[in-house]
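Entry for the shared binder. Reason: the reviewer on the internal report wants the predicted structure included alongside the sequence.
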Amino acid sequence: MGGSSCRPLPSFLCSSVTYKSGVAQGSGTIDHRTPDEVTSRPNILCKMKVFVLACMVGVAMCAPQQQRYDAPPPQEERYEAPPPQKRYDGHIDSKEIIFKPEPYQFSHAIADDEFTNYQTRYESQDEHGNVEGEYSWVGPDSIRYITKYTADAINGFQVNTIKEQTDIVIRFPEPVPEDKQDGYYSSA
């Protein structure tokens, strides 16, 4: 039973102490274990050393490596200067486009006696672009508000509102209880 217990591995990985008849040679201590017990301890130590070495190599392999970066060669500039422009010589070759106004007119009126909703609107424009119109409605205080306006290129937008008392009695709708409303479903 002489010799190293780890023959296939290099000697620096395994202990070089030889064991003979229960006495560890070279350590100066007496070991009272059987030869099988004695030879199993160096095998465990040898395997542990190999395992630790493999772990250290694995950690070293996983460490980030410093890589060399070579910058790409400089490229030629692609910018081309625009051609020189003509200087302003006092004459512009463009034509101003002027749209002629198209005359129009529209109106609508609402006279709903059931819900006391009364509104009117009228507007017109002539061939010169002058706009005139008016709109009106009856407010909850039974007053008719009439707003007249004009708009043209000289005076701009002009507006005037007139209040006119009426004998219209405004009806306010009565709220319908939720259980009487059509299509209403209670979540209770």
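Summary line for the report: The beta strands are 19-20, 23-24, 104-112, 117-125, 131-138, 143-152, 156-165.
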